[in-house]
Amino acid sequence: MTSKIAHIETMLVDIPTIRPHKLSMTSMAVQTMVIVRIKDDQGREGLGEGTTIGGLAYGPESPESIKTNIDTYLAPLLIGQPLHSIKSLIQRINMSVRGNMIAKSALQTALLDLQGKHLNVPVSTLLGGAIHQHIPCLWVLASGDTDKDIAEAKALIASGRHCDFKLKIGSRHVNDDVAHVAAIKAALGNSASVRVDVNQAWDESTATKGMAALQEAGVDLVEQPTPAKDWDALARLSQKFNIPILADEGVADASDVYQLAHRGFNGSIALKIAKSGGPIEALYAATVSSASGLELYGGTLLEGSIGTAVSIHAWSTLPKLHWGSEMFGPLLLQDDIIKQPLRYHNNGVDVPDLPGLGIEIDEEKLALYRRK
Ligand code: MUC
Ligand code: MG
What we know:
372 residues; alpha/beta; Enolase-like, domain 1; TIM Barrel; 2 domains; 7-stranded parallel β-sheet; 3-stranded antiparallel β-sheet; 13 helices; 39% helix; binds [(2S)-5-oxo-2,5-dihydrofuran-2-yl]acetic acid; binds magnesium ion; Muconate cycloisomerase; aromatic hydrocarbons catabolism; manganese; Enolase-like_N
């Protein structure tokens, strides 16, 4: 029997990070997640998460706006609705609410979890079926200190947890950033793939200089060197260098991927559930990327375990993630609000295979970290 959506609760959850995490636009010491709990009229519950980086530093939605907008505008559209078609529920929301992609992604995640539990199948099955059971996962070095980053990377390589690394740069002068990256690459050698994320901090001429030096230093990939919507610059840079470019902030959804490909961009695309409005739309972006000959990467907005789990379910349905993924968000946090943490080993993470997301809330931990 089809169930109906009976209740939607949202809460802000703050968990400190294991060390400061420095990006070009902010430094994080704590991560705030908006946790969503949707209950149906048969007593089942679906979990969702909407998470961004650094309040309003990264994008136009803050944790507080995500919570307020779900409570005030999105949740009332779902209460009382039958659960049989998630796409018709998405359509219902999209007809009344523009933007707010992270809020939409949080709700879509909870609906998928609820539907998966109802049908007794994992979320990956609802998204077409898992092709992979283990997803490669890199680690981000972002302490801001070269020696600390080298020590952190060497320990992670030795433990077998990660062999690929992304370095956050862009807040310092390009020469200092390149020296920092080159020192890390030289210390790790060929045992590691080293990539950088500039988070839009360079203009095109600085990017031309920086990318030439990074290519020389043996860096494998440069992520979003120039401002998000400067699609022409990204396309020109991708044609100028052999070192590939990964588009991140510049491509939120399938239509952005089309626009970038149309301009001659020949790099790769970072898929993220948060910027697309949910895993279903992130997979639409993947389809347009593949049709345009662009390679894929599973991205994160540093979500905790719920947002990370649903992303892993989505990426498991893709034939090929050319650059692996960065689904390490839970490992950056000092603690977790779920009972069985995601399993990280062999330079990757396992795809959960229990019904729904395959994860269970730890109520005591949730009560501890929930914002009062
Ligand atoms: C980004 O822009 O890629 C992903 C990993 C990380 O450390 O920051 C994010 C955001
Ligand atoms: Mg990025």
